[in-house]
Design goal:
about 375 residues; Molybdenum Cofactor Biosythetic Enzyme, Chain A; Molybdopterin biosynthesis moeA protein, domain 3; 6-stranded mixed sheet; about 20% helix; binds ligand LQZAQKY5; binds molybdate ion; molybdenum cofactor biosynthesis; transmembrane
């Protein structure tokens, strides 16, 4: 299956989560399920934009007191009156201007200074009016959205919650500390998965990445038991005697959405749906191939679960050219420069050196010779 089609099918196969109401702190990283509408005006009243004196009419003025930031009733000024005020405090009724401390000349209770009408005043409703739609549904909730929600007085947001992802790393040869050696391969996929899952906008469930031996029974049991919207399984995607993913999926009656992708690396990746709707993503055991598979099918499914559209990938020039594969899409680690993308090598399917120093992957369409342009797939799935 062509790489682009596999991505689209993976996106279409996932179900968007149902919108729920969440407190602001718990809504971080979720997607707005309904538009963010301001219940009131912001600011609710006219406020001082600078520390100084609220004044009325032309100077000089007589200073009659000082307003604290939390003063509930700022009172009223008459012509020729001034009151000390702090940034953000409600201004007294009748205020025509605020004179900054650094512009003020104070002699006893007499104040002089520049006072253009309306200067240094934040008007009520200047940021928004009651009922204004500030953000549409489908926006990812980040720090600024949380701050905005609080500014307009909201305590909760309606959001599509993060989807849940479980991660299984298989392989009898894998070790999790120290170097590789004869009969030992250091697990390089397990350490990548939590960050990839979180950056993609999902939540790793269980007690983190789970390690399984090459056993059909154990894999089948784990797949039938793990409660998550998406289950990642690395290292049993090919056709060898220890590659149990496809037999396990068959025994569970799973239906394949994608069964192999025409891309290099990562061609054995697969996505299947279990009878109860949970999705299972097979990540090839070669570490760069596993990363490519997560960025291809994993990100597409999580994107849909978040209620988001599959982002279009932008095009970039590859001025030095990059070799095409005749029938498969190539995913090539590149550095981004002012002139375009530059392949950086070390992009073999068992290597992570290229992607670790790269800024992105160039998506090189199949073709007979060399490409001088490609699309860009972010290596950080949090970047769209
Ligand atoms: N007869 C075929 N053999 C292979 C094919 C094929 O189509 N037909 N495809 C090759 C490609 S391409 C890939 S990629 C791998 C996929 O293999 P599996 O997903 O079954 O994974 P393994 O066989 O267990 O491992 C392959 C390779 O990767 C190393 N590995 C596995 N897990 C990890 C890990 N967590 N960290 C680091 N390295 C890992 C493992 O030791 C093997 O060297 O199959 C090819 N063969
Ligand atoms: O295509 Mo495999 O997925 O190269 O390593």
């Amino acid at each position: 299956m062509a790489w682009d089609l596999a991505r689209v099918l993976a996106h279409a196969a996932a179900r968007p989560g149902k919108a729920v109401s969440r407190g602001l702190a718990e809504a971080d990283g979720c997607v707005l399920g309904t538009p963010l509408v301001s219940p009131g005006a912001v600011p609710p009243v006219d406020r001082a934009a600078m520390d100084g004196y609220a004044v009325r009419g032309p100077g000089p003025w007589r200073v009659n007191g000082h307003l604290e930031a939390g003063a509930a009733d700022p009172g009223t000024l008459t012509d020729g009156q001034a009151t000390g005020i702090v940034t953000g405090a409600a201004i007294p009724t009748g205020t025509s201007s605020v004179v900054r401390y650094e512009d003020a000349v104070v002699t006893g209770d007499r104040l002089e200074g520049p006072a253009d009408d309306g200067r240094h005043i934040r008007r009520a409703g200047e940021e928004c009016q009651p009922g204004d739609q500030l953000l549409p549904a489908g926006v990812v909730v980040g720090p600024a959205v949380l701050g905005l929600a609080a500014t307009v007085g909201l305590n909760r947001l309606t959001v599509i919650p993060q989807s849940t992802v479980a991660a299984l790393v298989t392989g009898d040869e894998l070790v999790h500390r120290g170097p590789s050696g004869p009969g030992r391969v250091r697990d390089a996929i397990g350490p990548m998965l939590p960050g990839l899952i979180t950056r993609a906008g999902a939540q790793l469930v269980g007690s983190g990445v789970r390690h399984l031996p090459d056993s059909l029974d154990e894999l089948t049991k784990a797949l039938s038991e793990m409660q998550a919207d998406l289950i990642l399984v690395s290292g049993s995607s090919a056709a060898g005697p220890a590659d149990h993913l496809r037999p396990a999926l068959s025994s569970l009656g799973a239906e394949f959405v994608v069964d192999g992708v025409a891309c290099r690396p990562g061609h054995p990746q697969a996505l299947a749906r279990l009878a109860d709707g949970r999705l299972v993503l097979g990540l090839p055991g070669n570490p760069f191939a596993a990363l490519v598979a997560f960025l291809t099918l994993g990100v597409a499914t999580i994107t849909r679960m978040r209620g988001l559209r599959l982002p279009e990938l932008g095009h970039i020039a590859v001025p030095g050219g990059v070799r095409c594969h005749p029938t498969s899409t190539r995913l090539v680690p590149v550095r981004l420069t002012a002139h375009g993308a530059v392949p950086i090598g070390h992009g073999g399917s068992a290597m992570l050196r290229g992607p670790a120093v790269g800024d992105a992957l160039a998506v090189v369409a199949p073709g007979p010779a060399e490409a001088i342009a490609a699309r860009l797939l972010p290596l950080d799935p949090g970047i769209t």
